[in-house]
Amino acid sequence: VSTVSKSFRQHSDPIISYCTRLTVKPTELEEKITNDTINNDNWFVMLGAPEVLQLGKNFIQLIGAKKALDIGTYTGASAAAWATAMPSDGKVLSMDVSHASLDSIGKPLINQYSDIEKKIDFRLGPALETLDNLINNGESGKWDFCFIDADKVNYKNYYIKCVQLLRSGGVIMVDNALWGGSVVRDQWQSLDTRIIAETNEYISQDNSTNSALINVGDGLHLAFKK
Ligand SMILES: C[S@@+](CC[C@H](N)C(=O)[O-])C[C@H]1O[C@@H](n2cnc3c(N)ncnc32)[C@H](O)[C@@H]1O
């Protein structure tokens, strides 16, 4: 049994299933994306934990977010979650270097829900380039919500760019912030672990945000821009 785990993993602690069962309220579309990803894609462990997506949706509604950055699309589960939580004039910019899983699993489902589909802009290419383009186009301070969930080696870079793009009162969610618990186990220091741990330290020292590092899903570092 693992105490740092996404609820859909078989080895996750029953307490995680309990918390998830009571609070996660997926729509029909969200449920379909989750199930199709788990049943059909070899890399399904990358899927955003439903309990993390629910928390993000709650934040989006709490702060009235209308512009979200989704860094790491995969099958589109997180992008669909943010779009679901937003009003009809909301916008999700979802970034990935590959659209293979999105095209085979997420897109055919999302296309059946035009109210969700029209809110999401799926952008192909390295996320750092997309974020730099936004900054160069005067988008700093104009975004409400960021979800960081792509390649771990760029986590600190993504965080720094998201802080710049976010408005005051905006929320950043850094996923996989506990990386299966490896951040506190010296013998598991892979490059990804080291960079995630470094990013956590950086966020904790960053005076431009308040933060909360919580054990939900694979660990989630929340940062609230001052
Ligand atoms: C953990 S998955 C994202 C999961 C998704 N957010 C969800 O909730 O289901 C990570 C994704 O990041 C993408 N990725 C890897 N390197 C990237 C990069 N440099 N820029 C953008 N996306 C990248 C991968 O192709 C992969 O689809």
Overview of this protein structure:
The chain is α/β, with parallel strands linked by helices. It has a single domain (about 15-225), classed as 3-Layer(aba) Sandwich (Rossmann fold), CATH 3.40.50.150. The chain is about 45% helix and about 20% strand. The chain has nine helices and seven strands; from the N terminus they run αααβαβααβαβαβαββ. The protein has helices at about 15-25, 30-40, 50-65, 75-85, 100-110, 115, 125-135, 155-165, 190-205, and strands spanning about 65-70, 90-95, 120-125, 145-150, 165-175, 210-215, 220-225. Strands 3-2-1-4-5-7-6 form a seven-stranded mixed beta sheet, with helices on both faces. It is globular and about 45 Å long. The N and C termini lie far apart (about 40 Å). The relative contact order is 0.14. The mean pLDDT is about 95. S-adenosylmethionine (SAM) binds near residues 96, 98 and 127.
